[in-house]
Automatic annotation (TrEMBL):
The organism of origin for this protein: Bacillus salitolerans
Superkingdom assignment: Bacteria
Name of this chain's protein: Pseudaminic acid synthase
A Pfam family of this chain: NeuB
Keywords associated with the record: Transferase
Keyword Transferase: yes
Length: 351
């Protein structure tokens, strides 16, 4: 593997490897373990590399207050009319579900990990031996949490939503100083859903150079276009929220992908990655047979010895076994040295 590339579990992460696709379950299980396991199965069928959970409780996220800043009154919010506490009670994944969900992932060949939201969640996930950790955008300023995660020595994925360069620098330094050797930053827009116009994936190569690490995309836009484009700009990881059906509802369903869409994402991001290649001019190996079908100069009427070439008996046509069309003016007026049949490619030896 090249510089900055590393392993998450048995998956190689880096631009010389196909994109690592993460299906984020979040609260789309709708408080049903059976549905959570069905989501895992659908993710595996779609071809993703990993399923990610979120590990918290309402108590570790906030306090049970339903007024002021603890109540969501934003008219544009998907969660308007709920308190933060009640929202997290609805969305959280019971901790006793993690092991059966992770086991099902393992059975299906998927990696499984989570975003911890406090130190107790990190301790819990360590007992499940997760292969890496994800720091959510809203936690990228929680330096004690980042240090705690980094102390495990496992790869860390950090979403960058809302973070300034200085805040990201502080997060990256904290992670590295606490022992993180393998770090990836995900460009993220923390609106739900996000618009393509507000995604700014041109940041990806800049972020990669600035922080000397792998980069990727935590994508809340609809469809696959933004994710596909991000691969061309260097994204090694794509994370998308995932549900069985948006019609089923759930806290994140409105901006989550359905199984057919996720399968399309897997295919199209890999195609985008395959297409990047290297700077190259001239025919590729695959193109060489097509050279035969370029235009070239051909005799288009039967000629007798000594007859002069004119526009009526020489033309640039397909296939490409004769002189290049650029020589048309040079051969005009020349005499053939022997009888020449229609369909003979023009060469200097004819004259």
């Amino acid at each position: 593997m090249t510089q900055n590339e590393f392993l998450i579990g048995n998956r190689k992460i880096g631009v010389t490897h196909k994109p690592f696709i993460i299906a984020e379950m979040s609260g789309n299980h709708n408080q049903s373990l059976e549905r959570a396991l069905q989501i895992v199965e659908a993710a595996a069928e779609a071809g993703v590399d990993a399923v990610k959970l979120q590990t918290y409780t309402a108590e570790t996220m906030t306090i049970d207050v339903s007024e002021g800043e603890f109540f969501i009154s934003d008219e544009n919010s998907l969660w308007k009319g709920q308190s933060l506490y009640n929202l997290y009670q609805e969305a959280y994944t019971p901790w006793e579900w993690h092991e059966p969900i992770f086991n099902r992932c393992k059975e299906l060949g998927l990696l499984a990990f989570s975003s911890p939201f406090d130190a107790s969640a990190v301790d819990f996930l360590e007992r499940l031996d997760v292969p890496c950790y994800k720091i959510a955008s809203f936690e990228n300023i929680d330096i004690p949490l980042i240090r705690k995660v980094a102390s495990t020595g496992k790869p860390i994925i950090i979403s960058t939503g809302m973070a300034s360069i200085s805040e990201l620098d502080e997060a990256v330094r904290a992670a590295r100083d606490a022992g993180c050797e393998n770090l990836i930053l995900l460009k993220c827009t923390s609106t739900y859903p996000a618009s393509p116009e507000n995604t700014n994936i041109a940041t990806l190569p800049h972020m990669k150079e600035l922080f000397k690490c792998q980069v990727g995309l935590s994508d809340h836009t609809m469809g696959v276009g933004v994710a596909v484009a991000s691969v061309v700009l260097g994204a090694s990881i794509i994370e998308k929220h995932f549900t069985l059906s948006r019609e089923d509802g759930g806290v994140d369903s409105a901006f989550s992908m359905e199984p057919k869409e996720m399968a399309q994402l897997v295919v199209e991001t890999e195609r985008a990655w395959q297409s990047i290649g290297a700077v190259k001019y001239g025919p590729t190996i695959a193109e060489k047979p097509s050279i035969l079908h370029r235009r070239s100069l051909y005799i288009v009427k039967d000629l007798q010895e000594g007859e002069v070439l004119t526009p009526e008996n020489v033309r640039a046509i397909r296939p490409g076994l004769g002189l290049l069309p650029k020589y048309l003016d040079k051969v005009m007026g020349k005499k053939v040295k022997s009888d020449t049949k229609k369909g003979t490619p023009v060469s200097w030896e004819l004259f």
